[in-house]
Amino acid sequence: MKRKWTCSSCSLTFSRRWNLKRHCKLIHGQSITGFKNEHRDIQRKVNETKFVFINAMPDSRKQSFLDMSFDMINDVAKLKNTIANSNQIFTRLNFFQSRAISYEKQIADLYAQNWIVSKSEIQAVSGYVCNKCNTFSLRPIIDIGHDMTMQAKHRCVHGDKSTYIVFSIPPNIENIDEWTSQVLLYHLNFYIPIGKYLAADDMSRPFNAFNEGLNSDIAYGLMGIPDRYPLYSFEKDYKIDWVDRAITNLGRKIVVEEHEMLDFFRRVKSTYAIFEIPVGSNFKRILMRFTR
Question: Residues 9, 13, 14, 15: what is their CA dihedral angle, to the nearest 10 degrees?
Answer without folding.
Answer: 140
